[in-house]
Amino acid sequence: MVDQFVGTWKMSLSENFDEYMRAIGVGMASRQVGNVIKPKFIVSVAEGVISMKTQSTFKSTEIKFKLDEEFEERTADDRVTKVGSTIVSFINGKLVQKQTWDGRSTTLERALESGKLITTCTAGDVVAVRTYEREA
């Protein structure tokens, strides 16, 4: 099920990401950088633990987790979710990541469509879509 996401993905399109970053409280300087970088997204699985790495010239992050088990996360923009505040589930063929911090929340849904990895980022009524293509 999760194996279909395994691989290295390169971002090819980002829509409404500045509005999304603003909605989750990212400052202007970080938003400017976030709008121009095209990160790689690397998914791997080992012994039931999923690793999701985001690599760019600006910053690289990695989270390791088991499905449906809550964990603490430090995001690329330095938000920290406390233990029990980030959870990733596999729902209807999608990896659904829910983050909660400082009374706020966001959901990132990752789905495969036509061979592309589509990440839909939602915060309140703000939605951003980031499209990744598999690297050879």
Note the gap between the termini: 21 Å
The CATH superfamily appears as Calycin beta-barrel core domain
- CATH architecture designation: Beta Barrel
CATH topology: Lipocalin
Derived from helix and strand composition plus strand pairing, the structural class reads mainly beta
- What value does the average pLDDT take? 92
- The proportion of strand residues reads over 45%
| Total of domains | 1
Low-confidence stretches: none
Describe the model.
The chain has 136 residues and is mainly beta. The protein has a single domain, classed as Lipocalin. The chain contains two helices and ten strands, in the order βααβββββββββ. It has helices at residues 17-23, 28-36; strands at residues 7-15, 40-46, 49-55, 61-65, 71-74, 80-91, 94-101, 104-113, 116-123, 126-134. α1 (17-23) packs antiparallel against α2. The longest helix is centred in the N-terminal third of the chain and has 9 residues, at 28-36. It is globular and about 40 Å long. The mean pLDDT is 92. This is Cellular retinoic acid-binding protein 1. It holds the Pfam family Lipocalin. Residues 7-24 form the Cytosolic fatty-acid binding proteins domain.
